[in-house]
Amino acid sequence: MFCKKCGADNPESAVTCYACGEPLASIEQPRQPMEPKPDNYLVWSILATLFCCLIPGIVAIVYAAQVDTKWMMGDYAGA
Fold it and tell me: I need a labelling partner for 50 at 20 to 30 A (CA). Which of 18, 38, 41, 60 fits?
């Protein structure tokens, strides 16, 4: 790496010029643009699970709760 002030050749790992003491600016590599993080749809997955399974689950609980009542009333076919 060459010093921009005095032109002295310095090792690549040098932070300052050994001849004049000038700080050596390292040449930064151009950064690759980062790809955006993909959506994981976690919230949508949770909502879909709740709404798709919750409604049939509630219906099943309601009908299951009616079994004992119908059985005691003699509605064996409805139970």
Answer: 38
Provide the residue type at 43 as one letter: V
Q: How far apart are CA 6 and CA 16, in angstroms?
A: 12
Is 70 within 8 Å of 79 (Cβ atoms)?
yes
pTM: 0.40
> Mind giving me the DSSP string for 14-68?
-SB-TTT-PBPPP-PPPPPPPPPPPP--HHHHHHHHHHHHHHHHHHHHHHHHHHH
Mean pLDDT of all residues in the chain?
A: 83
Summarize the confidence of residues 34-50 as an average pLDDT: 83
